[in-house]
Amino acid sequence: MAPNPLLLSSSHTLCHFPIFPKTLTPRSVSPFSCRSSLSHASSPHSDSSSIEPSGTGAAAPTRGDLFLERQQSRSAATVVLKQGKKNSKKKRAAASKLSSAIACCYGCGAPLQTEEMEAPGYVDPETYELKKKHRQLRTVLCGRCKLLSHGHMVTAVGGHGGYPGGKQFVTAEELREKLSHLRHEKVLIVKLVDIVDFNGSFLSRIRDLAGANPIILVATKVDLLPKGTELNCIGDWVVDATIKKKLNVISVHLTSSKSLVGIVGVIAEIQKEKKVFLLGSANVGKSAFINALLKMMGEKDPVAAAAQKYKPIQSAVPGTTLGPIQIEAFQGGGKLFDTPGVHLHHRQAAVVDSEDLPSLAPKNRLRAQSFPVLSENKRLNDTAALGLNGFSIFWGGLVRVDIIKVLPETRLTFYGPRQLPIHMVPTSEADQFYHRELGISLTPPTGNQRAEAWPGLQVVRQLQINFENRQRPACDIAISGLGWIAIEPFSSHLNADPNGNNEADLKELHLAVHVPKPVEVFVRPPMPVGKAGEEWYEYQELTEKEEELRPKWFF
Known about the structure:
The protein is an alpha/beta fold. Helices cover 26% and strands 18% of the residues. It contains 15 helices and 19 strands.
């Protein structure tokens, strides 16, 4: 019996891919659909050219069926895409969890390891296994941090002259790379700057790290400023200097981690944030600042009080912190992150030996030493009467200032660490004096061995300083990583020229500053320090709009 051509055959399922006529476009069929359907067996005498793309007759799909099919296909595709995104998010979260699961030293942030005893993060294998067994690796302090806490100068960052690297030591570029993710996150940046080394520690490329995130600028170590300094003047001076940097700074705080000045104001701004990252150059005082924050917050916040037990290590060594340290500091669940200091090659700390680094860190108020010196010494009185022309002043073995052409009333005042000796000699004898006294009376470098390896003062910067107002200093000459020199064309402490013609004869001061090769020299508006600073400092007159856009400062 011949098979009935009208019967359906379940064993011969055909998949038809429609052939689009020239008058139609592929848009009429969803790109995600491949339809498999049962079709009637065709007659041997049927004309294949008469077959319609979607069939004809009462059984053909209606426009509504085609629309519904397209919608279902698109919905299925959306589910697939969402599932793919969900899986990728899970992978990223897993990678993040894996990285955070790596146990690090709570003192410096270096990953814990048991192989290299002299490398950062080293822990005795028995101690490591015991802490790991009891899930207490977050409470471990590495061997390097224990030495640092006892005053040892153990370097860990290589490639910057004064502190050469060693086994598993990190480079300054690696530390900077650890902070590169911040510009892609939504966080609050607390940027620290050392008020003693404002220009040298400012981080001119902060945008590369912070991105468009808001910044709170914190000036540290204000307790080191000379006695009698008016902080209102300092706050206004810092804001003026910050505005010129064109950063997204929302407020400025003057603080001291030692006396706790200004710490409360910073706490009020950050304690409601979810993520707060501290950024700053090496040895700007980040770890000390965090300890001060935890101390004050711990009085009312039990979470901050508990965090004080495992706080970051403080040290004079650049690169004490080697990795981000997460601190559970806020009762509301927010996190505070101490980050590795950004190493700047143009600071004095990058060229001196690690054993000499403590001499660059002031421990008390800055010593203001002026030249010419008025004292009972007859020779110095004679010098004061003749002025400074033709003399050279050495600031330890790190800086030499040649006075080429100034007024008889001109005075230079040095603000820096008390440990650095200052000597003045005739310029004609300066070279011989430097080679003879380097490592002896001109320190750092200290000792004959370090003095012999010292490269010398290779860079000479010629300065021509204009002045107009005789009632105030003309400028500051800031030495990166050390301090600054205030230049007063007309000092009120020195007798004026009886003829009174100096102001008309000379409108420019000529000096030459010698420093080691990578160290930078900045010429900036004078900082109003001491009692005299309040007298000559002038506040800028602002419009209402300028006052509104200007960052507010607190202390």
